[in-house]
Amino acid sequence: MDWLAFTIKPPTEDDPLGWLFPHLVALFGIPNLTPRGKGGYGYKQSYDMGGLGILAVGGKGQRGTVYVSLNAAGCARIQDMPAVKNWLEAHGARLKRVDLAHDDHYGEILSIEQAVEWYNGDGFSTGGRRPAHEVKGDWLTPGSPKGRSLYVGNRANGKMARIYEKGKQLGDPESRWVRAEAEFKDESRVLPYDMLTRPDIYLAGAYRCFAFLSALQEKIRTITKAAKISLARAIHHAKQATGKLVNVLMQVHGGDAFGVIAELRRDGIPRRLENYADFLPQVIAGAAP
Predict the structure, then answer these.
(1) d(CA 93, CA 193)
(2) Cα–Cα distance measured from residue 74 to residue 3, given in angstroms and rounded to the nearest whole number
(3) When you count CB atoms within 10 A of the terminal residue's CB, does the N or C end of the chain come out lower?
(4) What integer is the mean pLDDT of 127-131?
């Protein structure tokens, strides 16, 4: 699962966030709520959930509900999906958006070219009608490092497919990593809780051409690969920005690399890597000789 959004009505209107936040911590690993200074999703106020998504609350028309939207990094933190499903169901939450994904890290069965063939062969068609499509990226340069994306369907209708070169999107120009996604929204349909614990069935059934795909895959492997690419890009930018300064500081410190590090080091981690903080140990372990 690559995205999860839902509305839920806390049992108390006096302090809805006071009731909800402990559940967000326990089930989703949300570290904090930071006011964004504006509304969102039709609600009066909104909060950033530590870079893992958005929470929105307030407004007479929302009937005391709270909107919670978890992005890909937020979904990756979920450790017990059956517990999430049971909690949502027990409190009558309404699923608003669920994105299911399949990753082909080496481009063995998925490719942009294959997706185009599916589209032209009516693999995305339903009811005899071919859905609208849109393309993004560099489609004119063979082997372009910028990557390409194919969008099929209309988000406003409640279902849309995305097939894109994920590795290149993250900054690896040589990557063959391709991702296929199906985005479901509650437009003229009710999204069942079962989607959360049986994603393979719903992804495979989204389109005829997706019938062979399975969302059952190694979540940690997928996120760790994304973190590895992001770390490599951060190192590249740091080298461009400070590489020559390091040369000067090495002379200043008489070749003492630890002295240079002590002078340049700051607390925290780069913004590019914040959402992958939990997975950096796997990346570091994989880079060790």
Answers:
(1) 9
(2) 8
(3) C
(4) 82
Directed axis angle between helix 16-28 and helix 81-90, to 10°?
160
pLDDT in the model for residue 75: 94
pLDDT at position 283: 53
**Does residue 142 carry a pLDDT above 80?**
yes
Does residue 278 belong to any structural domain of this protein?
A: yes
Going by C-alpha positions, the residue among 189, 197, 196, 137 that lies closest to residue 159 is: 189
pTM of this prediction exceeds 0.85: no
> Is 193 in contact with 95 (CB distance < 8 Å)?
yes
Evaluate whether residue 60 is within a structural domain: no
What would the DSSP string read from start to end of the chain? Answer: --EEEEEE--S-SSSHHHHHHHHHHHHH-----EE-SS-BTTBSEEEE-TTSEEEEE--GGGTT-EEEEE-HHHHHT-S-HHHHHHHHHHTT-EEEEEEEEEEETT-SS--HHHHHHHHHTTTT-BTTBPPPEEEEE--SSTT-TT-EEEEEEEGGGTEEEEEE-HHHHTT-TT---EEEEEEEE-SSS---THHHH-HHHHHHTTSGGGTT----S-HHHHHHHHHHHHHHHHHHHHHHHHHHHHHHHHHHTTT-HHHHHHHH--SS--GGGGGGGGGHHHHHHHH--
CA distance 182 to 162: 6
> Alpha carbon of 268 to those of 28, 74, 231, 265, 271: distances in Å?
22, 19, 14, 9, 9
**Single-letter amino acid, residue 232:** A
Task: Tell me, yes or no, whether 48 lies in a domain.
Answer: no
Q: What's the domain range around 242?
A: 219-287
The answer to whether residue 234 sits within a structural domain is yes
